[in-house]
């Protein structure tokens, strides 16, 4: 076969395809015609010693892409890193071994450890398309993973990446399953536990379906994209860190699955357990506390659902060697006042700085979790008191600032340029706030992609409000996003329930 007849000049498309490698070829391209490539065909591209499998998008008509070139998306370009004028050889890839296993799972078959290993391996090698991964995520959703399969998936995800060893007898960690806007306890918990002298190397994710993830909030105040060497230096000097886990290759398959779960906008118990615990085990944790907020508009909606998730988490933790404590908390309402990265960061700093205006509910939740984690670390019966002392004395604030400096330098949160208030349609008492609706408004305002966007709560359940009085404030970085979020809020029955109580 003439290799040159299947080669094209490579050029950058300058298109962000959300970490998914895409190749663009003209419909008149001789390689397209010779190989029978069609739109969405999986194409292997070899360039020197590097290769990538990309999804084909076909360009038609006269345009920017000549027939003798192939344009690569940002992800494909970064994978190959071709030099100036480089040629890429394009061919059909071998069918991924995982495809038949995913098909079997779709049709309800149970998968074994080796099959999960193959699926995760093919996902990380980018042999699987987004359609393949979407089918896998869907087939694992609901109750379609049993406990043994969840354990197998967790082990496969951990084994596919690096695992840390801190050389310590005790490493603590925490996680919240999410679904509760503003519940940004992690930076406070890390500061308290590290100030107590424990090791807590916290790796966090960016938002999946929420207006902010812990990594998004922390990034407002300090760099979070650290490599393993930098992360280890921070933990060894300060006892703790709050970094983005996506660049550390600790359970890297989790990030590949999250990339699919985010646009699908759903989670499941099996995927939650595998995601959380594969990362905790890979990060070198020994004892972990997991917060499960329960509420009708939270991610976990009932006590029965919390019990089912807890049972699965406990079974997986025991199998992978983690000591786990589950904390069931109130998920009926948002926590704090800010919803969105910068607004939540401002709440965190108010608590750490003992500001008189600090949200009491965020402080209480953070101290509860920190106290429970300290007790896991050996402070039998004195965890909550120790946590409160470390916060009230300023030791936690001092340690948090030191962690930020060690991660690359502290920054004060900034505020959005565009704001508008949403007011009460009736007088009465606020009886509830819908977590999902208020989170949706914050996301439409631009969060988390725009760090200063979100929602600032001006009233809380139990507050008495007058008709025309402020309920919440929408923050946006652009007028268009502000108008979009405001219009959505105006069309809803309202995220606030207001009742005239007798």
TrEMBL record:
Signal peptide: none annotated. InterPro entries: Glycosyl_Trfase_fam3 (IPR000312), Glycosyl_Trfase_fam3_N_dom (IPR017459), Glycosyl_Trfase_fam3_N_dom_sf (IPR036320), Nuc_phospho_transferase (IPR035902), PYNP-like_C_sf (IPR036566), PYNP_C (IPR013102), Pyrmidine_PPase_CS (IPR017872), Thym_Pase_Put (IPR028579). One of its GO terms (cellular component) is cytosol. Keywords: Glycosyltransferase, Plasmid, Transferase. Its EC number is 2.4.2.4. It catalyses: thymidine + phosphate = 2-deoxy-alpha-D-ribose 1-phosphate + thymine. PROSITE patterns: THYMID_PHOSPHORYLASE (PS00647). GO terms for molecular function: 1,4-alpha-oligoglucan phosphorylase activity; thymidine phosphorylase activity. Residues 429-494 form the Pyrimidine nucleoside phosphorylase C-terminal domain. One of its GO terms (biological process) is pyrimidine nucleobase metabolic process. Belongs to the thymidine/pyrimidine-nucleoside phosphorylase family. Type 2 subfamily. HAMAP family: Thymid_phosp_2. This is Putative thymidine phosphorylase.
